[in-house]
Amino acid sequence: QVQLVESGGGLVQTGDSLKLSCAVSGRTDSTYAMSWFRQAPGKEREFVGTITWGGGYTEYTDSVEGRFTITRDSARNTLYLEMNFLKPEDTAVYYCARRLSGSVYGLRNPQAYDVWGQGTQVTVSS
């Protein structure tokens, strides 16, 4: 059973940087990709970005492209989300999630993910 635990959230100001971590425990041999999603109050869960666990391919939503970077340390089974030039609209609970290989849903669809972390709050003040 894979478990995900996020950490690193907090309260920052506009323009600041923050780095989130997602510790992955359990067997990861069926993991195709790991992604970050976020959910702001009253809004649907939104895809932020993804990285393939074996190859390191990354993809981001347009609103964070060039500001956010996803990396993974396969040896430590840890996923990271480095966020720069933060804006108030980045305020949300951030979740990491695991996508199995063979899912019929696309990388940006939450239904493609079978394991989720508990989330970590990121608040960006103006």
Shape: globular
Summed over residues and divided by their number, the pLDDT gives a mean of: 94
Q: How many H/I helices?
A: 0
Helix/strand order, N-terminal first:
EEEEEEEEEEE
Oligomer: single chain
* End-to-end CA span: 40 Å
Topology, number of strands: 11
Rg, please? 14 Å
Helix content: under 10%
Note the main sheet. 7 strands, mixed
The secondary structure category is: mainly beta
Strand content: over 45%
Low-pLDDT stretches are none
Protein topology:
Elements: E1 3-7, E2 10-13, E3 18-25, E4 31-39, E5 46-52, E6 58-60, E7 68-73, E8 78-83, E9 92-100, E10 113-116, E11 120-125
Parallel strand pairs: 2-11
Antiparallel strand pairs: 1-3, 3-8, 4-5, 4-9, 5-6, 7-8, 9-10, 9-11
Account of the protein in words:
It is a single chain. This protein is 0% helix and 53% strand. The chain has strands at 3-7, 10-13, 18-25, 31-39, 46-52, 58-60, 68-73, 78-83, 92-100, 113-116, 120-125. Strands 2, 4, 5, 6, 9, 10 and 11 form a 7-stranded mixed β-sheet that branches. Strand 4 and strand 5 (46-52) form a beta hairpin. It starts with a strand and ends with a strand.
